[in-house]
Design goal:
This protein has 265 residues and is mainly α. It has one domain: MetI-like (MetI-like fold, Orthogonal Bundle), CATH 1.10.3720. The chain is 80% helix and 0% strand. The protein has twelve helices and no strands.
Length: 265
């Protein structure tokens, strides 16, 4: 038994190392004094300075964030409305629309990317910020719907009717009764949408235009030459994501502890 326990721990350590060692490597060499990616010659912040001084890199960060935020907001609203509408639809219609909604997630990204590219070119729509944003909204909506539907299945259908019987309008019942009940699904869908938009490369590469790059397309364009500033950019992203995850996990714990203290007081 001890032998199998050791093997399990070794396997777990290998998996963790496989995922996290490359990240640690990038973080360490973002502080390297030279351009070398294999030999650490000394500590320096020059690549962070060059990153902030690089207009193309800062523009890629701007486009990535603004597109991710707008795409998340639009897809969350649209996905929530569609999901609620589907929950009130006939079973056959709901099943058909659900299967259609799953197609973009089951399709390889390259298929979706080429399809969107051909769609824009057929309509003679010049590629750029607008097409990139529209593409991100399109592929984010299915993830939002998928995140919200399980919460709607758990929802009691009589709650909205009871609210309207007590004087609420349909809009008030939606905002004050249904939305709070499915809030966790909406937040989860929004987080997935933001992550998918922020991280996307394939669809962005085929739907963007000249001078419009997000982080992924910009990094791809610079892979043919050594650019340690990319390590600095990656380190900042890792730190930001880690900070967000810490707050996302710590704040609910603090709220629960405060509630327990209030109950015992």
């Amino acid at each position: 038994m001890k032998k199998y326990g050791f093997l399990k721990k070794s396997y777990l350590a290998l998996i963790i190392g496989f995922f996290y060692l490359p990240i640690i490597y990038v973080v360490v060499f973002s502080f390297n004094a030279s351009r070398s990616l294999t030999s650490f010659t000394g500590f320096s912040l020059q690549w962070y300075e060059k990153m902030f001084a690089s207009r193309p890199m800062m523009e890629s960060i701007y486009y990535t964030v603004i597109i991710a935020v707008i795409a998340t907001a639009v897809s969350t609203v649209a996905g929530t409305i569609v999901a609620i509408g589907l929950s009130k639809s006939h079973r056959i219609i709901r099943q058909v629309v659900t299967q259609v909604n799953n197609l973009p997630m089951l399709n390889p990204d390259i298929v979706t990317a080429i399809g969107l590219m051909l769609f824009f070119s057929t309509l003679n729509i010049p590629t750029g910020f607008g097409t990139l944003l529209l593409a991100h909204i399109i592929f984010c909506i299915p993830y939002v719907i998928l995140s919200i539907m399980p919460k709607l299945r758990q929802l009691d259908d009589n709650l909205a009717e009871a609210a309207m019987d007590l004087g609420c309008t349909p809009l008030q019942a939606l905002w004050k009764v249904i939305i709070p009940q499915i809030r966790e699904g909406i937040v989860s869908g929004a987080l997935v949408a933001f992550t998918m938009s922020f991280d996307d490369f394939v669809i962005s590469y085929f739907t963007t235009g000249p001078g419009i790059n997000n982080i992924s397309t910009y990094v791809y364009a610079t892979t043919k030459r050594i650019n340690p500033s990319v390590n600095a950019l990656s380190t900042i992203i890792v730190i930001a994501i880690t900070t967000i995850l810490i707050f996302a996990n710590v704040l609910p714990m603090l709220r629960e502890r405060r509630k327990r203290n209030e109950k015992t007081a």
